[in-house]
Each structure stands twice: as structure tokens, then as C-alpha cells.
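To the wet lab folks,

You asked to see what we're planning to order before we commit. Fair enough. Below is the target structure as C-alpha cells, and below that is the sequence we designed to fit it. If anything looks off to you, flag it before the synthesis order goes out.
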């Protein structure tokens, strides 16, 4: 793959539903990517907390499952199609191909956005020549809105509750992608972050945005 840092860090997890219990296992898979194109590396950061006066709204009851079609993030001026993605050959959730770097991938074997459980949406940070769909993902803050338009005609509104940059070393899939509150409809947006590690030819971290259904 001839991209520059366009692939998620190989620390994503796969998820199975077994009697209503989420079972997580981390899959470490390396890909051969050229280094990023001179962009300054993002530094790992502590989880973003709500700003002064920001009160997070109550959670809404989960919706019936329906496939996502589009995601809008007003604070980032982002609007992008969502495409289903299977597990890749390594067993990790796949991002869209690089000729679709403006799209977001939904891990179709996991929960659908708006239904109970943490739905996983992954996107590229950049390509060989330009920023990709999630290049500003780390700018989100608690209280920001995310709208997911679904195949049943409903728009599911999520509210961001946490933004974290997680290092590859010591990565814990359950902490990153597991449910914050059982039975709640949640959303995870994920992309690459950190510095480029030439030794393993991958970024050193992921940005993980956690949100929950509020409207």
C-alpha cells in the first residue's frame, strides 16, 4: 500500500457478541507504509475533559439496528459517507481503501451506530499527498455533537464524552473500545496519531473519540 500514514495503527481489536457479553482481543498486525509527508507529529495527551460550563446531556434509549450511511461532525465541518468494512486479512477492522480516503469505515460485524453497544467507525488521517477524512479528529472535545444518518432514515445524534490519544505500547483494547456503560448506545471514532515509527513503519498511537447516543 503506497500511502503515508493512512492506515490505522495496528492495535485495533476485534469484537464478538457471546450471550450479550463483549469479548475483546487485541490483534497486533504491522503494515508496510512509507513515512508521513513531513507533518508535525501529534503528542500523546491526557483525555480531554468537558470545558467550564459544559454539561453532558442524558443518554437516549438505543435504537433498533440499521446500517450507517453518512456521518456529520459540525464542529470539524466534516461530512462523509460511511461504508461497511469487514475484518482485514490480519483479523483487524479495515479502513476504507486509499482511493476512498474521504470515507469512513464501519466495522459491520459490530454494533450499528445508535443500537446498544460501542459502534466502531475508523478513518484515515492522511494520504501520500493530503489530509484525509479524520485528520482533525483529535480536535473534538466533550460536548461536541456527531450525527450519523442511518439506512432506516433516522439521524442518530451522539455527544462526545471523551477524547484520548493512546500509545501503541501498552495498548488495552477493552479500555479503548469496550462499553463505558452496559446497554448504552455508544460510538468510537478512531484514526492514527502520534509520531511515525520508522522501525515498525507505523504511527505510534491512535486517537479514540468516545461518544454516546443523546438524540
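Sequence we intend to order:
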Amino acid at each position: 500500500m503506497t500511502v503515508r500514514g493512512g492506515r490505522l495503527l495496528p492495535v485495533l481489536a476485534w469484537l464478538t457478541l457471546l450471550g450479550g457479553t463483549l469479548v475483546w482481543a487485541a490483534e497486533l498486525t504491522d503494515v508496510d507504509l512509507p513515512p508521513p509527508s513531513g507533518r508535525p507529529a501529534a503528542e500523546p495527551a491526557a483525555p480531554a475533559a468537558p470545558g467550564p460550563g459544559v454539561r453532558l446531556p442524558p443518554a437516549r434509549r438505543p435504537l433498533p439496528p440499521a446500517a450507517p450511511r453518512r456521518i456529520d461532525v459540525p464542529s470539524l465541518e466534516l461530512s462523509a459517507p460511511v461504508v461497511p468494512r469487514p475484518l482485514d486479512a490480519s483479523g483487524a477492522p479495515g479502513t476504507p481503501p486509499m482511493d476512498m480516503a474521504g470515507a469512513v469505515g464501519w466495522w459491520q460485524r459490530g454494533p450499528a451506530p445508535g443500537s446498544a453497544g460501542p459502534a466502531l467507525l475508523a478513518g484515515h488521517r492522511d494520504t501520500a499527498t493530503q489530509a484525509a477524512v479524520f485528520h482533525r479528529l483529535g480536535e473534538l472535545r466533550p460536548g461536541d455533537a456527531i450525527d450519523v444518518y442511518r439506512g432506516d432514515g433516522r439521524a442518530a445524534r451522539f455527544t462526545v464524552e471523551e477524547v484520548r490519544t493512546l500509545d501503541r505500547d501498552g495498548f488495552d483494547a477493552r479500555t479503548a473500545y469496550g462499553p463505558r456503560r452496559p446497554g448504552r448506545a455508544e460510538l468510537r471514532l478512531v484514526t492514527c496519531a502520534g509520531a511515525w515509527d520508522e522501525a515498525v513503519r507505523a504511527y505510534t498511537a491512535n486517537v479514540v473519540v468516545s461518544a454516546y447516543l443523546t438524540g
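Structural context that might help your review: The two ends are 39 Å apart (CA to CA). The longest helix spans residues 173-177.

Thanks,
Computational group
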